[in-house]
Write a structure and sequence with these properties.
The chain is an alpha/beta fold. It contains 14 helices and 30 strands. A seven-stranded mixed beta sheet has the order 23-22-24-25-26-29-30, sandwiched between helices. Strands 4-3-2-15-14 form a five-stranded antiparallel beta sheet, with helices on one face. A hairpin with a 4-residue loop joins strand 7 and strand 8. The radius of gyration is 27 Å and the shape is elongated.
Length: 511
């Protein structure tokens, strides 16, 4: 059941004493239920109750779990003393099965009718008491026998802040990717704060531009970890920059999440590093395996960036070729190179069956143009950059027609999670989300989940909770932290048609 988003206001004077900062108004919620029917609505959207409301001693009883979730409360059941509870903001309501005595923030209250467990095994509670205790209004229509619970939009007041650091390439050679990274994180934080923050505190971001350079990343991370209020950091993104700052995080004992994918990062053995994109040991292997097993290619050209990202994947691809008796021809290039004529001609002369291109965004666009202009006329399979708008905007559709790529996010994925995410992202930023937006939105949600499970904003507690992440439902995959701290174990193989990436195969590896 989709939970309605609502939070109870804390008395403004109390917030002032604690130094709280009000958030924006929360969403109003209207819940409608009819006696004897399992059909209801939340904000005019139809829902199905697991138990129909009923009347006893002139009072309406409704399903305990349904009304709590509809109003945004945390619910609890203690079988030892047969109590049910609701926690919403600063309100804590406890009722005992079969008893007309309840407590609201420790103060005893008398009910007109006791909560009970029905013969169906479902627990029902008095709707008016619960609703009015948390500030909602209850209306009864005797003609239609409908109960309407209305909770007005009210401000959420926080009792402090939880600061998250962000190291992202806002400028430099990776600016659009950095922008999407920041936007994904900001959207997640907005949603979290709209629902009351974390541990009753508002989440705030400290964003520092790392310019996608080693020096920039070191400076950004040093600034973030030296701030005692920063409890965790997201970024930097690239594998080389992560390798440059790994010891900084390790020495400061600060947990961080990153989209770095090179197998080289595993050798860092950093207990504070958590990876929210699939390792290239999965994705690069999936791509070369698809080229070999599905497409039948036996002679593989490998075009790779000589940075940590490119060389890490190159090693994976070459090892697969060796293990499967495939011929391979490897040609490297540097970030910023402007002419790939030499390596493309070597692939032509070697008469390779295909080329696997593993490189960064700018070089991927250059590869597209020059392989077309030089008439390579061989299938191209490449890393995820070619699936993103900032790269596709730089190329002509005919240059990349029928290209293949691996990716862990495509807007054309038909999963409900992608559609829901896009439906939130596009209205806010005016563009469709792409890989970095999705990955770092997920990173922030995973971090929030860890902080909630830790029950603390302590760095050590957050680190421990991140390591125990299990079956977290992401946008389009389930995240579970393995021994190497990788959380995503799924990659899609897509093919481009008129610059639209369509999924042709899904590869999953159990953590």
């Amino acid at each position: 059941m989709k939970k309605a988003v609502i939070m109870l206001v804390v008395v403004a004077l109390l917030g002032g004493v604690l130094g709280s900062t009000p958030a924006r108004a929360a969403e109003a919620v209207v819940v409608q239920m009819t006696i004897g029917s399992t059909k209801g609505t939340i904000n005019m959207k139809q829902v199905v109750l697991d138990q129909a409301p009923l009347i006893e001693n002139g009072r309406t009883l409704v399903p305990f779990r349904f009304i709590g979730e509809a109003l945004g409360a945390q619910i609890g059941w203690n079988p030892a003393n047969r109590t049910v509870s609701y926690v919403l903001g600063k309100m804590n309501i406890v009722l005992t099965i079969g008893s007309v005595t309840a407590t609201v923030n420790g103060v005893k209250k008398t009910l007109d009718v006791a909560p009970k467990i029905l013969s169906t095994g479902r627990t029902v509670v008095p709707v008016r008491f619960i609703s009015e205790a948390i500030g909602a209004k209850v209306d009864w229509n005797a003609t239609t026998r409908m109960v309407t619970v209305t909770m007005a939009a009210i401000a959420v007041v926080f009792s402090g802040q939880i600061k998250i650091g962000v190291s992202a390439a806002i400028t430099g050679n990776f600016p659009l990717a950095g922008t999407r990274t920041q936007q994904g994180i900001q959207l997640a934080v907005k949603e979290i704060n709209d629902k009351g923050g974390l541990l009753g505190k508002k989440v705030v971001l400290e964003v520092i531009d790392d310019t996608n350079s080693t020096t920039g990343a070191i400076n950004a991370v040093n600034r973030l970890i030296s701030d005692p209020d920063v409890v965790a950091v997201i970024g930097p993104h690239t594998s080389g920059n992560v390798m440059a700052v790994s010891d900084l995080y390790k020495n400061a004992k600060v947990p961080f999440l990153t989209g770095a994918t090179s197998p080289k990062v595993d050798k860092l053995n950093n207990p504070y590093a958590f990876y929210i994109r699939p390792s290239d040991s999965i994705s690069a292997k999936a791509l070369v395996q698809y080229a070999n097993k599905t497409l039948g290619f036996k002679k593989i050209g490998i075009s790779y960036n000589t940075n940590d990202f490119g060389t890490g994947a190159k090693g994976v691809i070459e090892q697969y070729c060796k293990d499967n008796n495939l011929v391979f021809v490897s040609q490297g290039h540097n970030a910023g190179d402007k002419d790939f004529t030499g390596q493309i001609m070597k692939f032509k002369q070697a008469n390779v069956d295909c080329v696997i291109s593993w490189t960064d965004d700018a070089e991927q666009a250059l590869t597209a143009r020059q392989t077309y202009e030089l008439g390579l006329n061989k299938p191209i399979l490449c890393s995820a950059g070619i699936t993103m708008a900032q790269v596709l905007d730089l190329v002509d559709a005919k240059w990349v027609e029928n290209w293949y790529a691996e990716t862990d996010f495509t807007i054309n994925d038909t999963s409900a999670g992608i559609k829901t995410f896009a439906g939130k992202f596009e209205p806010m930023y005016g563009v469709q989300p792409e890989l970095y937006a999705g990955s770092y939105y997920t990173a922030m949600r995973v971090l929030a989940d860890a902080i909630t499970r830790a029950g603390s904003a302590d760095r050590a507690a957050i680190t421990a909770a991140l390591a125990k992440t299990k079956d977290f439902v992401g946008i389009n995959s389930i995240l579970s932290c393995d021994d190497a701290h990788h959380m995503v174990h799924q990659v899609s193989i897509v093919q481009l048609h008129n610059k639209v990436a369509k999924v042709v195969e899904l590869v999953s590896v159990n953590p």
